[in-house]
Amino acid sequence: MKGKFITVEGTEGVGKSTNMAFIEEWIKSTGKELIITREPGGTELGEKLRDLLLDAKEQSMCDDTELLLMFAARAQHLHEVILPALKAGKWVLCDRFTDATYAYQGGGRGIEMERIAQLEQWVQADLRPDMTLILDLPVDIGLERAGKRSSPDRFELEKHDFFNKVRDTYLARAKAQPHRYQVIDASPAINQVQQSIQSVLESMV
Ligand code: TMP
Fold first, then answer.
1. Which of 1, 9, 41, 45 could pair with 50 in a Cys bridge, judged by C-beta atoms 3.0 to 4.6 Å apart?
2. Can you give the pLDDT at residue 150?
3. How much is the average pLDDT of 98-122?
4. What pLDDT is recorded for position 1?
5. For residue 2, is pLDDT > 90?
6. 149 pLDDT above the threshold of 80
7. Whether the CB of 119 sits within 6 Å of ligand 1
8. What's the mean pLDDT in 124-152?
9. How much is the pLDDT for 195?
10. Is the CB of 9 under 6 A from ligand 1?
11. Cα gap 118→71, rounded to integer Å
12. Closest Cα partner for 92 from 23, 19, 180?
């Protein structure tokens, strides 16, 4: 596999969309062929699963169903989009991936990390992102920045405590495997944040 697989993670309000757009533009400016995608979703079937997973009316969904649907969408995404692109030498920029499962379903919901690791191995075999950028911000600031959504999705309905566990899990994972993660402080002005992102990208090309 010649292409690079980059994922972007973070809790609510860290500026994921703006920074994804910056990363997209930067990678394209180097002449690389790039696929932009997201999870859950990224395929026709995956987007249907995303609708179910994010639907605030799906209050009866149990934690294991949520976990399995995330991996079901991921299996399809890998098969249809990610693996073919990487094999063709393209770069793949994905808005969230399995680190979000560890953070949200593991940290947030309290599912055993070992169970998630088993599914990861089954669905992905040895594939892991080459680089994961974690945009990091204290939960209070992030939620304030995100503001009150008029119709929050099933995850946005969660409380501070949930997002604190999500954030702690991201940071713990980054600390445990520093070569695969870059934690980007998302609190300074946007141009400063993007300078930090750019240095990480420069080290990859
Ligand atoms: P977002 O990508 O627009 O932020 O929304 C996706 C939501 O799905 C977000 O709240 C995080 C959540 N999520 C999980 O809980 N587990 C996962 O594995 C992924 C990819 C996303």
1. 41
2. 78
3. 98
4. 59
5. no
6. no
7. no
8. 93
9. 97
10. no
11. 11
12. 23
Question: 40 alpha carbon to ligand 1 midpoint, in Å?
Answer: 6
Distances 11 to 82, 85, 89, 96, 99 between C-alpha atoms, Å: 23, 27, 30, 10, 12
Specify the pTM.
0.97
Residues β-bridged to residue 37: 94
Q: Residue 95 CA: which ligand 1 atom is closest?
A: 2
Q: Beta strand 34-38 with 131-136: parallel, antiparallel or unpaired?
A: unpaired
Taking the centre of ligand 1 as the mean of its atom positions, its distance from the CA of residue 39, in whole angstroms, is: 7
Domain architecture of the chain: domains with CATH: 5-202 (3.40.50.300)
Ligand 1 proximity of 163 Cβ (cutoff 6 Å): no
Residue at token pair 């594939």: 127
**Among 42, 40, 93, which residue's Cα sits nearest to residue 67?**
40
Give phi and psi for 131, each to the nearest 5.
-150, 135
Do residues 150 and 99 lie in contact, with contact meaning Cβ atoms separated by under 8 Å? Answer: no
Verify whether ligand 1 is closer than 6 Å to residue 104 (CB atom): yes
For the chain, the average pLDDT equals 96
Q: What is the CA radius of gyration of the chain?
A: 16
